[in-house]
């Protein structure tokens, strides 16, 4: 590390970043980090916390390692560091290909970069972890540091490994500098972070806290009832808003519904969520960053770290899980200091989504026992990897990851590399797992959700003040600009303007089936959305199979037949089909009717028995507990019974009654590609879309 007295901080700030002056508190924070080595910085979103490690990386002996869950932030910062600031940087994360991660590792090991970003889940990988420990790290940055605290609103088990990494780096580098960054830590979370990041000698961590006011942001709460009202309010808000914005949604489905509706209203809005492949996410983010999109409807997979200073509005279309998460997300608006709005569309019934998330995040003692019992060699004496544990247990994949991390942390199991594959085995320790962290976190989340509901109801008074108080800002005063402080300037005509247009659109909306690269399948559609439980969906599901009294319905309900013919006409104009192929089914009573209708409409032959089960799956898909089990249930069980006549490169319309996990549909596509030699498009069309429970049997 350079001698601080010989560093001209302002000169380097101008030279590398083009800034004439530091923002308030930045220079003092950097000086504290350089002199005292351990700092926790708690500042509002948009205060330039990234500079606190970017600038010192120029003076640090060794690499600056940044552990951050914000993949969007990684992409933005790496581009800026490399292209604008001339500071070489790279990242290792799950959104990149294996080749991209390998290139980043080579650059780091060869000393060709100053800053390396790493996603926390990569620390759970033994190979990556050992690689990182072999680097010469001079500054270790824990971004979103509240995640290491059980008392934080966003505690993540993979962040437990960060503390272990800090300890390991300390053994190698006694003078290691450690910087924790967060915008959302109350006093209890702050104390817990400080305890974990304090150095082995017990020297106290320096804590720098800034007032949490965002004086350029006006906060609104708009009461709504149901999805249809939300859509109409969003259309009005987005159409009238200046600049670009983010529409945060609690679910992936929500992002797609909103983007489709607003697009049909001639508003340039796209959806973004973790279900999209890495390339698609990069394209969406880049377009939004460049200002070519009016808004992006996103889950929190977009990350709070998207580095776009001129976001003029943030709308939460569902209740967030906590006041602290809400503050962090709404804080993406107006980072350029110009006026911006943060708006919550408040429907009390939306708490059901967050209640579900809270329940899903709390593993039971029985869940721990189930996972532990399945950490055993198989019949070939091979130890299980992650995929095997998921298939064996049937638990929700997120819960399996959580429990494996916790069992490892508590020393009940350990990770090993066998032929470069990470596997798990038991240790000699036999004590029962301690679930205190999760009971604490469950209590925190319930309390945080109630605070968020109070915010939405208006029971907390001034909106900005209530957020600041929740974050430990004891000097917060009423802001004088929110919908609570200034109801006179708050638009009150939203409810009066509802037309019912969105409700009609929802009733007729089909659901896209996402395209896949492996196997190669084009985007398709489901005609009915099971999430909405509309009368036509209920009628179809009741009539699709013979009932208990032996009554059958060989034809589709008339209204569904109309939807089918309309969608077939749409597809016929956009694709060159050569055949209609149906998935095998023993129970779908309208299978023949539907196949013949498609054949007549498009004018191509239909093949009812081309695809068949060479071996019946051991279970019905709805009886299984997670999608890993569902994939294994149908893998290599299907074949073709005869060759498909030459369709000259034309596509196949693939029909089925409903789609759940999509595993059966993808298996059919694989068979058509490999065995039937289909080279053209394969477009799926199902009558309905349902969602299977994860960790439990049946539909949601």
- Summed up, the helix count is 24
Q: Give the strand tally.
A: 23
The geometry reads as: globular
Q: How big is the Rg?
A: 27 Å
CATH fold call of the largest domain: Rossmann fold
Largest sheet: 7 strands, parallel
The N- to C-terminal Cα distance equals: 56 Å
Q: Identify the CATH architecture of the largest domain.
A: 3-Layer(aba) Sandwich
Q: Write down the CATH class of the largest domain.
A: Alpha Beta
Structure classification: alpha/beta
Helix content: 25-40%
Provide the residue-averaged pLDDT. Answer: 89
Strand order of the largest sheet: 3-4-2-5-6-1-7
Number of structural units classed as domains: 4
GO biological process, one term: DNA recombination
Pfam family, one: Helicase_C
Protein name: DNA 3'-5' helicase
Domain Helicase ATP-binding: 30-203
Could you write a compact summary of the structure shown?
Residues 30-203 form the Helicase ATP-binding domain. With 700 residues, the chain is an alpha/beta fold.
What would you say this structure looks like, in words?
With about 700 residues, the chain is an alpha/beta fold. The protein has four domains: about 5-210, Rossmann fold (3-Layer(aba) Sandwich); about 215-355 and about 450-500, P-loop containing nucleotide triphosphate hydrolases (Rossmann fold), CATH 3.40.50.300; about 365-435, Orthogonal Bundle (Arc Repressor Mutant, subunit A); about 510-690, Rossmann fold (3-Layer(aba) Sandwich), CATH 3.40.50. The strands form five sheets. Strands 3-4-2-5-6-1-7 form a seven-stranded parallel β-sheet, sandwiched between helices. Strands 8-13-12-9-11-10 form a six-stranded parallel β-sheet, sandwiched between helices. It has a six-stranded mixed β-sheet with strand order 16-17-23-22-18-19, sandwiched between helices. Helix 22 (about 590-600) links the parallel strand 18 (about 575-580) and strand 19. Helix 9 (about 225-240) crosses helix 19 and helix 14 crosses helix 16 (about 395-410). Its EC number is 5.6.2.4. This is DNA 3'-5' helicase.
